[in-house]
Amino acid sequence: MSIMQDSREATMIGRRTDGTTIRRPLSPHLQVYDMMQLTSALSISGRITGIIWSVGLLVLVWWLVATASGPSAHGTVSWFLSSWLGVLGLVGLTAAAWFHTLNGIRHLAWDAGYGYDIKTTYKSGQAVLIGTAAATVLTWLIAIIAWAS
Amino acid sequence: MATETARNTTLRSPLGRVRGFGSAKGGTHHWWMQRVTSAALLPLTIWFALSAASLAGASYEETRAWIAHPFNAVLLLASIGLSFHHTAAGMQVIVEDYANEEWAKVAGIYAARAICWLLAIASALAVLRIAVQG
To answer: CA-to-CA distance for B125 and A55, rounded, in angstroms?
Structure first.
């Protein structure tokens, strides 16, 4: 047998009744699940929005460092963040951040032992989606009012 | 009787067993700190999101004055520290889940941690510079 490339292969080797080794298939993986269910979709979204927020932190670092270094660097950040690409990115980031935050509260409730039954799981999932939309709109409403005044 | 002997001849001290530290040198600390930082970041995130939104269209001087205010500077520093701790912890879990090779796993975890440390220090320095200069 060739050198293993993947440590999981160690669990895929079985023996026939005559003692010879045979390579068994991996147990059913992602493809057997319906990933369009609210539960699975929100689960992976929690991780994806975490990654998006990490990228968003880079914008925060850029904004802070530029503001500390002087007016011209700050002007560049302001120009980018108020461009259509910047605003689009910030809207996406706001939504991702609110989702990660609200879904995080859901996870904290699970960690404390609450909300495990299917009905509550779906309800809290829907609440997270509605909450994300409401908080994103509210945040941008404040931004637009602040920008206009 | 045989099992009794086997149980008593373990080389592990009772104190070691109680502490529960195996070769991993830690048990729930990483998981618990993720929860603690998330709970701490919850009010900070709401404060920052609303503050950042109300800074839309603010001038260079207005932005600096907001950051330089002691209340905002303290909360910003706290947010920076907690955010990068939480990000490094999250990145570690993602690397652990998807990297199969041990070297890639170790390298990925420490690379993420190093980047988070450097970015956190850079942002904290920026806040402090603005706060001190006024």
So the answer is: 20
Residue A112, SS3 per DSSP = coil
Predicted complex ipTM exceeds 0.90 = no
CATH number of A49-148: 1.20.1300.10
Which residue do the tokens 């109680």 mark? B18
pTM of model > 0.90:
no
- pLDDT tens digits along B40-92: 999 999 999 999 999 988 999 999 999 999 999 999 999 999 999 999 999 99
**In chain A, which residues touch B (CB < 8 A)?**
6-8, 47, 50-51, 53-54, 57-58, 60-61, 64-65, 67-69, 71, 74-75, 78, 82, 94, 97-98, 101, 104-105, 107-108, 111, 135, 139-140, 142-144, 146-148
Please state, in angstroms and rounded to a whole number, the distance separating the CA atoms of residues A107 and B93. Answer: 16
In a domain, B23, yes or no: no
Delimit the domains of chain A by residue range.
Answer: 49-148
